[in-house]
Write a structure and sequence with these properties.
The chain is an alpha+beta fold. It has a single domain, classed as 2-Layer Sandwich (HIT family, subunit A), CATH 3.30.428.10. 21% of the residues lie in helices and 22% in strands. A hairpin with a 7-residue loop joins strand 2 and strand 3. The longest helix has 17 residues. The relative contact order is 0.22. The structure holds adenosine monophosphate. The site of adenosine monophosphate (AMP) has 12 residues, from loops.
Length: 113
Amino acid sequence: MSDCIFCKIIAGDIPSSKVFEDEYVYAFRDIAPMAPVHILVVPKEHIASTDGINAENSVYVARIFEAIPQIAAAEELSNGYRVITNCGEDGCQSVKHLHFHILGGKQLLENMG
Ligand code: AMP
């Protein structure tokens, strides 16, 4: 999508701090980190949110979740981490391209509400 910031990052039109890339997945450091390690993992195909996942594109989600433990290992998150995706208005999704936050590098708060 031409006006999507994460599509532009994947295309290299906007700079990012890349930590992982394969045929389906692109991962980069969040520009406003909420933990010592804060990485965004996104599908290379534009999917707007979890509401846009279907049988045709779910391979991207599967590949994202195959990449996540590799990224966590590379970031030395052996004591654990959190994976979050925000969807829609109530979920406080600000970028309308599906992305999974990996948060770690410290003891995270229990409250997610
Ligand atoms: P969400 O609120 O779940 O939609 O998360 C969007 C995330 O994208 C936020 O944590 C932002 O800090 C992050 N973000 C926005 N623009 C950029 C960018 N150019 N590079 C890296 N992270 C970004």
